[in-house]
Amino acid sequence: MGILRSTRKTAAPAGQTQSCSSACSAPRGAAFALLILLLTSLCLAGQDDWPQFRGNLQLTGLAASAVPENLRVLWTYQAGDPVESSAAIVDGVVYAASQAGELLAIDLATGALRWKYKTGEPVGESSPAVREGVVYAGDLGGALHAVSARDGRPLWTFKTSSEIKSSPVALAGRVLIGSYDTHLYCLSAKQGNLLWKAGTGNYVHATPAVSDSGLAYVAGCDEILRAIRISDGEEIFQISAGSYTAASPALAAGWLFYGTFGNEVVAVNLAARKIAWKYEHAERRFPFYSSAAVSGDRLVLGGRDKMLHCLNTRTGKPLWTFPTRARVDSSPAIAGRRVYAGSNDGRFYVLDLDTGAKLWEYQAGSPLSASPAISRGRIVIGAQDGAIYCFGG
């Protein structure tokens, strides 16, 4: 991928709600109101739902729901085509998408289909997000769809100039989405109007993590981590990781963690605005495509070296690794002291967070590159053969 260092912010076209320039000059009261709405969003993310990719706005992959120790398959749903994106689970409904170009609403308790929405283009890795009765999903044709969570009725569609693999992030009144057209977009949640777009130097593959200070952090294929103000799209600062990034950053206790195609895991101290440490396996040097899960002083992510890695969040010291039989692009989830992850070896693994010991595995038989979603004591994950699995007690 090419590397460009410059960053640009483009205003919304005339007649399409608020432009970047007008947002920058908005009264302080408007920015304060947006901050209050953002804080409300962050509080709501602590409930038992899993409303978006990685479960919350900070992208930590940390579940609020306890998971039974003894798991079994409760149901499967056959989507027909590969499921690479991760599910969202809200109010007992699973929202999943497939390369068949379908957004599905499935009952979490029974596995029964509630409704189906046709996107018109395949859905790749972009995971649905749900907020205030609306489901948002991006497709490989570059469109972001807003659909009624109740019945699948289309509400609006916004078209970018290239494919969408980034997952939408739904805030109070706003939706963030990255596109391979090199931009991060901010849209009106109600009508899908463009509020602003921030330019980067290459594809925006990762999903932005959102802080309670009103910043979106997005790592990119131009090797740059950017902090972008959500109120107006202004870039506040940037940090070079030294290699391009497909993984989404996890935000915890003022630090950001993400892997790179330079075979490293990077930790950024946001107060100092600099990289605090980098981790590279001593022998197996492969890219990290998986996004990290963070719980306390531990972070866990998968590598294309066929392993799951657990590191200390403050030092980057490796605590354990767990070998699978193929690369691990699935982003793990953590519930309690257990780690849940898929692998391209077709197995779903449950590991002990403290030791990395395998506690259970299920052989799906098809690569699991999607990431698990956890809600109400149940785990949902899709497979490359189109099967969607629900595990529980």
List the helices and strands and how they pair.
Blueprint: E1 9-11, H1 20-24, H2 28-44, E2 72-78, E3 88-90, E4 93-98, E5 102-107, E6 113-118, E7 129-131, E8 134-138, E9 143-148, E10 154-159, E11 169-171, E12 174-178, E13 183-188, E14 194-199, E15 209-210, E16 215-219, E17 224-229, E18 235-240, E19 250-252, E20 255-259, E21 265-269, E22 274-279, E23 293-295, E24 298-302, E25 307-312, E26 318-323, E27 333-335, E28 338-342, E29 347-352, E30 358-363, E31 373-375, E32 378-382, E33 387-392
Antiparallel strand pairs: 1-14, 2-33, 3-4, 4-5, 5-6, 7-8, 8-9, 9-10, 11-12, 12-13, 13-14, 15-16, 16-17, 17-18, 19-20, 20-21, 21-22, 23-24, 24-25, 25-26, 27-28, 28-29, 29-30, 31-32, 32-33
What does this structure look like?
- This protein is mainly β and 393 residues long.
- It has one domain (9-392): YVTN repeat-like/Quinoprotein amine dehydrogenase (Methylamine Dehydrogenase, Chain H), CATH 2.130.10.10.
- 6% of the residues lie in helices and 41% in strands.
- Strand 17 (224-229) and strand 18 form a beta hairpin.
- It is globular, with a radius of gyration of 19 Å.
- Mean pLDDT is 90; it is low at 1-30 and 32-46.
How is the main sheet built? 5 strands, antiparallel
**How many helices does DSSP assign?**
2
Going by CATH, the architecture would be 7 Propeller
User: Overall mean pLDDT score?
Assistant: 90
Widest sheet, order of strands: 1-14-13-12-11
Report the portion of residues in β strands: 35-45%
CATH fold topology: Methylamine Dehydrogenase, Chain H
Structural class by SSE content: mainly beta
Broad CATH class: Mainly Beta
Instruction: Report the count of strand segments.
Output: 33
Total number of distinct structural domains? 1
- The CATH homologous superfamily is named YVTN repeat-like/Quinoprotein amine dehydrogenase
Q: Approximately how much helix is present in the residues?
A: under 10%
The geometry reads as globular
Distance between the termini: 45 Å
Uncertain stretches: 1-30, 32-46
Taking Cα atoms only, what radius of gyration do you get, to the nearest Å? 19 Å
